[in-house]
From TrEMBL:
It is found in: Cell membrane. This is MFS transporter. The chain crosses the membrane at residues 15-39, 59-76, 83-106, 112-132, 144-165, 171-192, 213-235, 241-263, 275-295, 301-329, 341-363, 369-392. It comes from Enterobacter kobei. CDD domains: MFS_NepI_like (cd17324). Its main location: membrane. It is a multi-pass membrane protein. Keywords: Cell membrane, Membrane, Transmembrane, Transmembrane helix.
Length: 406
């Protein structure tokens, strides 16, 4: 139960609160992925290797996955606004530390601190958005807030890369610290007090773990997101391999990818209510095709084809990110809190595995082979997508409930 009745009408303050929550999710996910666009400068600045810097993404993801589960089980009774504020401060401190470190070990420590806030924050943010809007605006609220996650996933890396090249990699983390301050002030002023004590804890999590449908979504997410991040974590080195692409154009390529991702997020929002399964399936197949194409294209791909491939990849990855998240919320019924937390855990585990596999492959094999393997892997996730129901029908709901009661 929400301690306050849901508002009956949307106010300007409610809309602004959703925007602030979206900015918060953008900040926290961009913090997670920032090293992807800064592999080379961070490695040079800390006298480390690109694969080692890539592992900071993996570690962040794994700690975030554990943090999300911890939050769903043990922090359900904590006032959400107060907890969001504390987590935002922790994120700010993490970014300040990352901007000022002088050793690789110190960077890892700063990243672990941020990851602790990341998992808990992401696990509760959707429920917070739902709690501050009328019931008929729940879909809109969710799309706005998780739009920040999607935007960060596809736009945060090129922004970090651009700042890293022109101002230095440390300035990218200072920007994330500044955005954390903006989020803190916005949450303080705009987000109402929310105390939620339902659908949390061990029992609720056990109910989620008994849902065969949710497990299929989680495994499809694990496979698709692992494959995507194995390739995307090392997009910068792949672009630098292209003989026809000037190094000065790398930020532009990543920027176009980010813009395409934002467009894909909008397109997915238009299609997903009616065509959820088709949208996810098509997105998976498009990424599969692009990655295999990039892996087999050699080092002399034309600039036009590079930009085209990145546009398709950016649009399609939004369909995957938003699609699987929406699928979980659609199938979770009254278990949205623990179901979302578990989804966050699988998503972050996938990022960690993807970055780790990518690090191993680029240190042992040519980068193009990584793209072929990643494309094949994400293509295999279509087998799971094919057997997941598009919606929770009455018959299916009865079967799930019967299974949960056993």
């Amino acid at each position: 139960m929400i301690s306050e009745k849901l508002p009956q009408n949307m106010t300007l303050k409610s809309w602004l609160a959703l925007v602030i929550l979206a900015i918060s999710t953008f900040t926290i996910v961009t913090t997670e992925l920032a090293p992807v666009g800064l592999l080379t400068p961070i490695a040079e600045g800390l006298h480390s290797s690109e694969s080692a810097v890539g592992m900071t993404v993996s570690l962040y993801a794994w700690v975030g996955a554990l943090s999300a589960l911890f939050a769903s089980v043990f922090l359900g009774n904590v006032a959400k606004k107060r907890l969001l504020l504390v987590l935002t401060v922790v994120l700010m401190i993490s970014n300040i530390l990352a901007a000022t470190v002088s050793t690789y070990g110190a960077l890892l420590s700063a990243r672990v601190l941020g990851a602790l806030a990341h998992g808990a924050f992401w696990a509760m943010i959707g429920a917070t958005a739902v709690a501050i809007v009328p019931a008929r605006y729940i879909g809109t609220a969710t799309s706005i807030v998780f739009g920040g996650v999607s935007a960060a996933s596809v736009f945060g890396v090129p922004v970090s890369n651009y700042i890293g090249i022109h101002l230095g990699w440390r300035q990218a983390f200072w920007l994330m610290a500044a955005l954390s301050v903006v989020a803190f002030v916005g949450i303080t002023v705009l987000v109402p007090q929310i105390n939620n004590k339902s659908a949390m804890g061990i029992d609720a999590l056990k109910r989620v773990l008994k849902s065969s449908t949710l497990w299929k979504i989680y495994f499809a997410t694990l496979l698709a997101v692992t494959a995507h991040f194995a390739a995307f974590t090392y997009i910068e080195p792949w672009l630098h391999m292209q003989s026809l692409l000037s190094a000065a154009f790398v930020p532009a390529v990543l920027l176009v990818y980010g813009i395409a991702g934002l467009a894909g997020n909008f397109l997915t929002g238009v299609l997903i209510d009616k065509y959820l399964k088709m949208t996810v399936a098509l997105s998976v197949l498009l990424i599969c095709a692009v990655l295999i194409f990039l892996g087999r294209s050699g080092s002399s791909l034309s600039v036009a084809l590079i930009f085209t491939a990145m546009v398709i990849w950016g649009v399609a990855v939004s369909g995957v990110f938003v699609g699987f998240q929406t699928w979980v919320l659609r199938m979770a019924e009254d278990k949205t809190f623990p179901a979302s937390a578990l989804y966050v855990s699988f998503f972050n585990i996938a990022i960690g595995i993807g970055a780790s596999v990518g690090a191993w492959m680029v240190s042992s094999f040519p980068v193009p082979l990584l793209y072929i393997v990643a494309g094949t892997a994400i293509g295999l996730s279509i087998l799971l997508v094919a057997v997941i129901p598009a919606s929770l029908t009455t018959k299916h709901s009865r079967v799930e409930k019967s299974y949960e009661s056993n």
